[in-house]
Design goal:
Blueprint lengths: L1 H23 L4 H13 L2 H26 L21 H4 L1 H22 L6 H17 L10 H9 L3 H16 L22 E5 L3 E6 L6 E2 L3 E4 L17 H7 L4 E6 L11 H20 L4 E6 L1 H16 L5 E7 L17 H14 L1 E2 L1 H10 L2 H14 L8 H7 L4 E2 H13 L9 E3 L2 E3 L8 E6 L7 H4 L10 E6 L18 E6 L6 H6 L3 E3 L3 H9 L5 E2 L22
Parallel strand pairs: 4-5, 4-6, 6-7, 7-12, 12-13
Antiparallel strand pairs: 1-2, 2-5, 3-16, 8-9, 10-11, 13-14, 14-15
Helix pairs in contact: 3-5, 5-6, 8-14, 10-11, 12-16
Keywords: Acyltransferase, Transferase
InterPro entries: AB_hydrolase_fold, PHA/PHB_synthase, PhaC_N
GO biological process, one term: poly-hydroxybutyrate biosynthetic process
Length: 569
Amino acid sequence: MDRQFFEEQAQRVTGLQHELRQALDPFGLVATTLKAQQAWLLHPEALSRQLLNWSADYTQWHKMILARTLGAPDNDLFPPHPDDTRFADPVWRDSPFWDGIKEWYLFNTRWLQDALYATPSLCDQERSRSAFWLRQVLNAVAPTNYLATNPVAIARALATHGDSLLLGYQNYARDMGRGDIPMTDMDAFKVGENLATTPGAVVYRGKLLEVLHFEATTPTVNKVPVVIVSPWINKYYVLDLDSRKSMVKWLTDQGHSVYITSWKNPDASYRDIGFDEYVTDGIDRIVEVARAISGSDTVNLAGYCIGGTLVATYLAWLAARGEAAKIESATLLTTLTDFSRPGDIEVFLDEEGLSFVEQTIARKGYLDGKEMAASFRMLRANSLVWNYWVSNYLLGETPMAFDVLFWNMDTTRMPEKMHCYYLREFYFKNKLIAPDALTIAGQPIDLGRISTPLFMVSTEEDHIAPWLQTWKLTERASGPVTFTLSTSGHIIGIVNPPSPTSKRSYWQGSVNKGEAADGWLARQGKTAGSWWPSWSAWLAERGGGQVKPKLSSRQYPNLGDAPGSYVLE
């Protein structure tokens, strides 16, 4: 009886601790900070060295201030990072006063970050999480973010007789209603008018998706169509921005018939839609529609980002069903299948952080895309948050019109059951990489069963799907793999049309079984320009010959012009 009593009390205390952390510290910032403080107190000699380092930096800063006051030229003791544009204006160098404020901020920032990484007894995960949240604080308190300590904003206010402050306030009031800080002029674009304008048709409309078909513009087309699975966390038209950047239009001009998913933007009524439905009623549906209209037994399947993760899962699902022959080839664009190191987003994904996200989703029945977007923007807070805070509100500017940023802010929602399953089973538990650890729509999933030829594209600067992590699939899939590493990042490295003025380039080649990423890269030559033409040629080899174009069929008639209705929700 006594033992049972104490066990019950222990469970109640554990439950209370969990509830308190969920309410006050879901991502473990306070807990990790307290652990770091305790570690320093247990190592007084190391703490003393760190404090001496700060004193030495302070002394240098103080001498610099005195020298600048007496007319000495600027000599940055603590220069900003080359990519840090916050202090680019000459006033931060020319004025001793503002230079002193800048240097004070930079030396304290550097010291705090160095001290964090030198903290004894922290594991790598705790160090990474602490560093992330410390960066958020340091970025937020930068002098450039406040009118009183931003000389550029003060000068603008004086030069405009206060008009810039009035415009900034108007921008702020408008954006408060929208619930976001815009990164572009949100009035400059309209889907279907100057975005997503490639001619096409809606040939299927179901609960989860519209299937958009863009027929080739050439007299004949490859019989085997290209089927693209877009991310369900964003809208499809990042691949169909305008006529110059549209991957969809470019493929149709090369003689490819293109089908693409336009996912439904779910509301609370979709909360019980699971990952299984995204396989059976999503990707399998568009494949069947494309096969039926084209008359081809197979398709060349492609998936972008999380859409690529769905494609890889689907390939393993088909293999388990003995239906792998439905897919002629698969292209995976910036696709994670091994989530052991999923990029910077992992700072949110410990047990407590995940539970907090799940509770947030459960309250509404979906995850709002703005919440997801805010998380990703925090990964690059200076360039994606505070840069726009300063320009929109302190300087009173209207952001530059940029179609990619408009698309990035045109967010979608994710149903509760599906997204919680994805976060916990894929991201947190990393089960996709383990053979038969997941059962999707009645089938055990083993990526090792994938024998379909793969064309994989990753990007050098991708912080969402790091290329060394996307490479992991080459170690599992049993079929031939052609790997491409493009310069630039997660979006621009993919939205990379051929252009004589393009500054981008890529490495490309087949992967030997068991080959390490660095070994593969070492034997590749760098090619200037876009990787799109080489991909088109690779697809054409699997195109099944030439046939006459066919936009729709009796079974799947033309339901209306692209971009359809789901993308507008």
